[in-house]
Amino acid sequence: MILPPSSENISRAADALRRGECVGMPTETVYGLAGDGMNPVAVARIFDIKKRPSFDPLILHVASAYDLSGIVKSVPETAQKLMQRFWPGPLTLILPRNTSVPELVTAGLDTVAVRCPDHPVAQDLLRHFGGPLAAPSANPFGRLSPTLAEAVEDELGGKIAMTLDGGACRVGVESTIVDCRGAGVNVLRLGAVSLEELERTAGPVQVIKNNTLVAPGMLENHYAPRTNLYLCESLEAGPLPPGAAGLAFSGGPANRQRKVLSSAGDLREAATFLFAFLRDLDRCGATLILAERVPELGLGRAINDRLKKASTGTASWGAAGWVLSQK
Ligand code: AMP
Ligand code: MG
Fold first, then answer.
1. H/E element holding 91?
2. What pTM, to 2 d.p., does this model score?
């Protein structure tokens, strides 16, 4: 059930959360599957609905940094700086966990991931509910993240109390995850806050690769459509193979089988459309999807990361046409 975010519906959603039910919640990144982050039964329900493995810890969402006191032990200086600059907003921080946080949330780790979303509906819901909400992306594990209320209901309707309609997500890719408990600033997941933005506030950062134990969002296959997707350098290299769909960054025609992320070549705009276009192409009856890498800077890094994880291999154009190779 998709409901407009009126104050009455926000109260209904908060009541459902208090009963341990789950609610589709818009955030600026993607739609979340929200549940009471301090109620193990509600948290277990999130894992069950998503079919998410229990070793993959959840992010707790708070209305403001003041609400961290009950869930983290301490906030290192660099984390404070980052929170001042980026909260509310799409930055997740890994902090020492307070023992009051259910083990299931953190998958037994001694840290907890926290974020303060800036979407007005998420903020309203958090304030009405009055506690932290666990809210992983509202999609079955490993699939495309939803950036529209309709996408949440398509996949999870019937299993959740309601989805609050906050319109299309402003950013469109997941939050950046940062661990700055030690000496340096480690980026565990590329996301909505670019490395360039982080470095302007925190100095040089390090991107941690393949650390699946710390952040399973970095699993090699994730965010995937059902149709096989192949990554290529340029869609302009040759015509699409018969029956194939195409995802271009900025050039060429746009139609049902061929989507263009941003004709202006704007990476922010491209991020906004990424998951929605992949979802459309997944449904257009194509035998495969060819997707073009975007420039590797700013939000482009997060987009390329998602495309790589959604891919089953790469495609290159040669004398014999497109050659596909498996990952
Ligand atoms: P999602 O909410 O689906 O976007 O995924 C949350 C991501 O945060 C997953 O990749 C988790 O592994 C990661 N995460 C959550 N808690 C922690 C933690 N304590 N340490 C490291 N990564 C975490
Ligand atoms: Mg997810």
1. strand 91-96
2. 0.90
Q: Is 108 exposed, middle or buried (0-12, 13-18, 19+ CB in 10 A)?
A: exposed
Q: For 297-324, give the DSSP string.
A: STTHHHHHHHHHHH-SEEEEEETTEEEE
The total of other beta-carbon atoms located within 10 Å of residue 141's CB is: 16
Maximum mean pLDDT: which of 131-135, 222-226, 302-306:
131-135
Looking at residue 126, its amino acid is L
For the chain, the helix, strand and coil percentages under 3-state DSSP, each to the nearest 5: 30, 25, 45
Residue 302: closest CA among 282, 277, 272: 272
Q: CA separation (Å) from 2 to 9, 185, 235, 256?
A: 10, 39, 37, 26
Residue closest by Cα to atom 3 of ligand 1 = 136
pLDDT at 327: 83
Q: Strands 111-115 and 91-96, how do they pair?
A: antiparallel
What DSSP string runs through 193-210? S-HHHHHHHHSSEEE--S
As residues whose CB is below 5 A from the ion ligand 2, the structure lists 137
Probe ligand 1: pick from 28, 51, 54, 56, max atoms within 8 Å of CB? 56
Residue 220 binned pLDDT confidence (cut-offs 50, 70, 90): low
Structure tokens at 123: 């903020």
Please list, in sequence order, all residues whose beta carbon lies within 8 angstroms of the beta carbon of residue 102, skipping any fewer than 6 positions away.
37, 38, 39, 40, 43
The DSSP code for 131 is S
pLDDT given at position 212: 56
- In the chain, the largest separation of any two C-alpha atoms, in whole Å, equals 62
